[in-house]
Amino acid sequence: MMLENLSKHFGKIAIGAALLAASVYLAMISVTLAHLEFVSGQTPFDMRPFGYAPADAAELLGGLGKDGRKYYLTRQIPLDTLYPALLALTLSSTICWFGRRMPNSGLVRLGVTLAVGSALFDYLENLGIIAMIWSWPDVSGPLVSAASFATIAKSVMTTLAVMLVFATAIAWARLPKAAFRI
């Protein structure tokens, strides 16, 4: 009963979460991440979908300086604490919205799993970034590797979840008109 009532609101949840997620993402891209890149001359960890090596991490953290590292902790990380949950909610509710009338609920479950997984890896990435900043200049190779793995896993899972949103939307659009319910 509760799930049925919730399913009536997936569209509204998807749209509201998407607006909030887009606002936070815009703030990160145009303000905090842009500032970090300007200060360091390097691409911030969050924007490296293929990961980074210990030398890359040392170059970024050194280039940030004390004030830049503090800025990462006090400006970027708080925004990136909101964003993963908002993105996961956007992707999950969109997949559920389009997928609620589809016979193959396995795609919906996979999409939700990928969306939630991407958020979890984004949080692990953030914890890794925090640990690297706190341990600077003695950042260990295994810590950088773990944070880099989280960044790569986040990127892959997010990409796959977005692809499933589009696949689900296309399948939904091909359903007979009688099956449409928004």
Structure description:
The protein is mainly alpha-helical and 182 residues long. It has one domain. Helix content is 81%, strand content 0%. It is built from five helices and no strands. α3 packs antiparallel against α4 and α4 packs antiparallel against α5. The longest helix is centred in the middle third of the chain and has 46 residues. The radius of gyration is 19 Å and the shape is elongated. The two termini are 18 Å apart.
> In which range does the helix fraction lie?
over 70%
Order of helices and strands: HHHHH
Which radius of gyration do the C-alpha atoms yield?
19 Å
How widely separated are the two ends? 18 Å
Proportion of strand residues: under 5%
Q: Count the beta strands.
A: 0
User: What are the segments in which pLDDT stays under 50 over at least 5 consecutive residues?
Assistant: none
Structural class from helices and strands? mainly alpha
Biggest β-sheet strands, sense, barrel = none
List keywords for this structure.
mainly alpha, 182 residues, elongated, single chain
List the helices and strands and how they pair.
Blueprint: H1 2-7, H2 10-40, H3 54-99, H4 105-135, H5 141-173
Helix pairs in contact: 2-3, 3-4, 3-5, 4-5
Brief digest:
With 182 residues, the protein is an all-alpha fold. It contains 5 helices and no strands. The two termini are 18 Å apart.
